[in-house]
Amino acid sequence: MRCPFCRHSDCRVIDSREVEDGQATRRRRSCAACGRRFTTVEEAVLAVLKRSGVTEQFSREKVVRGVRRACQGRPVDEDALQQLAHRVEEAVRAGGAAEIPSHEVGLAILGPLRELDEVAYLRFASVYRSFSSIEDFEKEIADLRRPAAGEAVEQRSGSSTG
Ligand SMILES: [Zn+2]
What we know:
Helix content: 40-55%
Order of helices and strands: EEEEEHHEHHH
Number of helices: 5
Structural class: alpha+beta
Strand order of the largest sheet: 1-2-3
Distance between the termini: 37 Å
Number of strands: 6
Bound molecules: zinc ion
Radius of gyration: 21 Å
Strand content: 15-25%
């Protein structure tokens, strides 16, 4: 790692800590030549494979942008969007694959979005699943109306991965 100030290549790590629940490591470094300090963040790269065959780095911001569009005029605040994007990222990372198809990112968005706002969910699903008729909406709405199995059970008690 080169020093960003003097480009010297000998930099010592003086502190190292995990951030984002261990998904990234933040290191404090000190340059042996000029003595200045800087921070680096190491993160396992999660690639999204688009239908075009191009891969790009997973971006939480992109998830937020897509969902924000579906939430226009809905009582969903920025905080909720960020939380949703965080959940999507965790779900996607939990899959354990270094490269995931973009439609799986879309799938990971549907669940949390449905909990957040049903209208936004319908909008997002209509684009994502390319609804082509009113029947598609009707079917989806019927699904929304059907009480989920075990709905009485507290659902926000965390993801029980295992
Ligand atoms: Zn330096």
